[in-house]
């Protein structure tokens, strides 16, 4: 089994995380900003490469969101250590992600695939911009954007729970 270029790109994002955390914790704003941009670009390009090369795999479909969550939680944890954000903000973000992941998993087991919603993509964009701003020491603007992403995250999460409810997925 070949791992595929798209999955290698995804794994490269995972490999960047310790360097991003180190650069954040050591106030190297240029390096942390640059590495975060690389991570964001890798997230964008892995899907494109998979589709262009006709190499979309179940492993990749599971690996990409897992790496996204590891990236987000790891970097946010570094910001907690820097006292840029509170553990409560991380709790809100992680809780929403885990609940939506659970809902989507239950629905897949029921034969219903829920694609990513527009607001979910807006949430991700806002969250990534907030992470970038925090990494380059634009803390106040980054915190405002992070809170806005949390608000959008819960609104978009509501969409998933409405489908869960409409489909009576608990039965």
TL;DR of this structure?
With 171 residues, the protein is mainly alpha-helical. It has helices at residues 5-25, 29-52, 58-81, 87-109, 118-135, 139-166. Helices cover 81% and strands 0% of the residues.
Topology summary:
Elements: H1 5-25, H2 29-52, H3 58-81, H4 87-109, H5 118-135, H6 139-166
Structure commentary:
This protein has 171 residues and is mainly alpha-helical. The chain has helices at 5-25, 29-52, 58-81, 87-109, 118-135, 139-166. α2 packs antiparallel against α5 and α3 (58-81) runs antiparallel to α4.
DSSP summary: helix tally: 6
Q: Average pLDDT value?
A: 92
Helix and strand run: HHHHHH
Rg from C-alpha positions? 17 Å
Q: Give me the count of strands.
A: 0
Described by the principal axes of the CA atoms, the overall outline is globular
Please report the distance between the alpha carbons of the first and last residues: 38 Å
Strand content: under 5%
Q: What share of residues is helical?
A: over 70%
The low-confidence runs, each spanning 5 or more residues with pLDDT under 50, are none
Instruction: Indicate the structural class.
Output: mainly alpha
Largest sheet: none
What keywords describe this structure?
single chain; 171 residues; mainly alpha; 6 helices
């Amino acid at each position: 089994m070949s791992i595929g270029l798209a999955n290698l790109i995804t794994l490269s994002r995972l490999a960047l995380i310790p360097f991003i955390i180190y650069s954040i914790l050591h106030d190297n704003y240029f390096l942390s900003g640059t590495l975060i941009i690389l991570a964001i670009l890798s997230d964008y390009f892995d899907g494109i490469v998979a589709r262009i090369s006709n190499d979309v795999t179940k492993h990749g479909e599971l690996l990409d969101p897992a790496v996204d969550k590891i990236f987000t939680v790891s970097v946010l944890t570094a910001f907690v250590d820097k006292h840029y954000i509170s553990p409560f903000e991380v709790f809100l973000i992680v809780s929403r992600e885990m609940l939506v992941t659970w809902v989507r998993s239950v629905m897949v087991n029921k034969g219903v695939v829920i694609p990513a919603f527009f607001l979910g993509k807006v949430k991700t964009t806002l969250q990534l911009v907030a992470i970038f701003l925090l990494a380059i020491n634009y803390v106040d603007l980054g915190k405002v954007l992070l809170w806005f992403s949390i608000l959008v995250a819960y609104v978009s999460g509501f969409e998933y729970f409405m489908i869960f409810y409409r489909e009576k997925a608990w039965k």
